[in-house]
Amino acid sequence: MLKIPENKTRKRFRIAQCVFYALLVFLCSMPFIQGANSQGVFYSYSVLDLISFIGGNADGALGSAFLKYVMFTPILIIIPVVGFFFCALDSQRNMKNIVSLICCAAGIISIIIFAGSALSLGALLSLLIYLLVSFLTTLAIFARFIGDKKENEK
How far is CA 105 from the centre of its chain? Predict the structure, then answer.
């Protein structure tokens, strides 16, 4: 990829993407799934709670349904971390935008597959932020091809 020096607009998009990816990592500590167990007791678990259940016992049919996905819960943290580091460290190439779109698509798909109908606040906010980041990434791709007005005047 061609290395083009970063202008103000592209830098703002890159910083916004980094902030939103950091927020996505924080949202993993909020309730991600919710439901009721076989005794009718309401529960809500964050991604970090689900990671701690790796190798544990299932409680009822709903618990066993989530237990088969527990091994994949680190993906929900790894995806925004990868997106954050690509956006933070790649300032001149367009690779960060391509990786960001892939991370957004992978994040949305993994949340929908993992949480399904048991979405809680953390998963819902994560979906909305992934959509926002994909929109910002699309704008950043177009900002790469359109220079600053001051540069065009010179």
Answer: 9
